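Rather than argue in generalities, we reproduce a single protein record, letters for residues, whole numbers for local backbone shapes, just as it appears below:
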Amino acid sequence: MIEAAKTFEEYIKKENITGFAIREVGDDRNTTVFESEIEADGRRLPIAVVIDSTAYATIRVRLAQNAVDDTNAMLLTGWLMRQNQDSRLIKFYLTSDTAILADVVVPHNPAAFDPEVMTSVLRVFIRDITKLMPDLAMLLPEE
């Protein structure tokens, strides 16, 4: 585990932030993934904080799986484009398997990682996603 990931792990333990499973990927970037779930609009959404040896850490949440069908493709695409225009922090993606992801990329110095910045961004990200989920949920197919 790289020093930045160790620093984040120590910080969340010290601050009693629970609910994260920690997984080392074992790739050439020395990636560590902190995985958890958040609740938004009655849904459990997987969230991950990805820290590696690059100058970027990523926070990612999967907002929906199998999100597109014949009835919502145009409305959903329009919603995603509006969100990407309106949000300076979060970027939304539709994957090839029709999942909707939302990412925040946080630049950082791996040698001087600031876990307080990461947790502050994480809190804002969760707040903003929670506010958006009711509108997105109306566009999704029935589960």
Summary: The beta strands are 21-24, 32-40, 43-51, 56-64, 91-94, 100-107. Helices lie at 3-14, 73-86, 115-139. The two ends are 38 Å apart (CA to CA). Residues 38 and 126 are 8 Å apart (CA to CA).
